Q: What sequence folds into this?
């Protein structure tokens, strides 16, 4: 049997949801594998992975490090394609989702670079949960904003958060929204760290974006016969 690409990444998401998170699974009548870290007394689940206790801060750091490495080839390819610094793409991903490809915001932004449906459609993204599509679309959007604001990094980052219209209405300044006022320096702090060769960025963890308990949607992991 074979398991679709992304299985390891999904296990990482489950493990990262808590300092201790044993993984349970069962296969339904359609051959679909269901994973969770909270079986809730369901006897159909059986343990497939035991994870050791560790401090939450350690769990966060380990997950962030692995997640970053997982997407670097996609980030560098998209950055090269659109002429954007990989450090900037990493900075936006760090601030937007903490490298959580399954992140969904209350406003409906999805994936690593938190694309809203209109932006995703505009830049040819059909599946915002796909890391490759999301990174490609988000990087294309960043390149567009950098051109629109003549390479002004602060304004491009502000527009990524608040929209280019808000930046223009603010007289080509950072809009006076609390979220955007906090977002721009946060992204720029990540950007400087990545430019300077730090792989960690500021200590703002991915776990803040992830609910617990964590369940994996069955369509994400398929098992098929050889």
A:
């Amino acid at each position: 049997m074979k398991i679709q690409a992304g299985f390891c990444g999904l296990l990482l998401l489950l493990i990262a949801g808590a300092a201790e998170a044993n993984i349970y699974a069962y296969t339904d009548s359609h051959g679909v594998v269901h994973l969770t870290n909270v079986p809730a007394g369901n006897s159909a689940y059986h343990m497939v992975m035991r994870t050791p206790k560790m401090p939450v801060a350690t769990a966060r750091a380990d997950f962030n490090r692995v997640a970053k490495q997982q997407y670097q080839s996609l980030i560098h390819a998209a950055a090269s394609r659109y002429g954007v610094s990989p450090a900037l793409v990493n900075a936006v991903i760090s601030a937007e989702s903490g490298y959580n490809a399954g992140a969904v915001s209350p406003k409906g932004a999805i994936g690593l670079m938190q694309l809203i449906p209109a932006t995703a459609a505009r830049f040819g993204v059909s599946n915002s949960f796909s890391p490759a599509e999301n990174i490609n679309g988000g990087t294309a959007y960043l390149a567009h904003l950098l051109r629109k604001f003549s390479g002004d990094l602060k304004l491009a980052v502000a527009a990524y958060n608040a929209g280019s219209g808000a930046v223009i209405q603010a007289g080509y300044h950072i809009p006076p929204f609390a979220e955007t006022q906090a977002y721009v320096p946060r992204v720029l702090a990540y950007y400087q760290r990545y430019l300077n060769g730090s792989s960690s960025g500021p200590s703002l963890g991915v776990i803040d974006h992830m609910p617990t308990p964590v369940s994996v949607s069955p369509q994400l992991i398929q098992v098929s016969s050889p």
Remarks:
- The chain has two domains: 2-55+218-224, 71-199.
- The beta strands are 2-3, 23-27, 33-36, 46-49, 223-224.
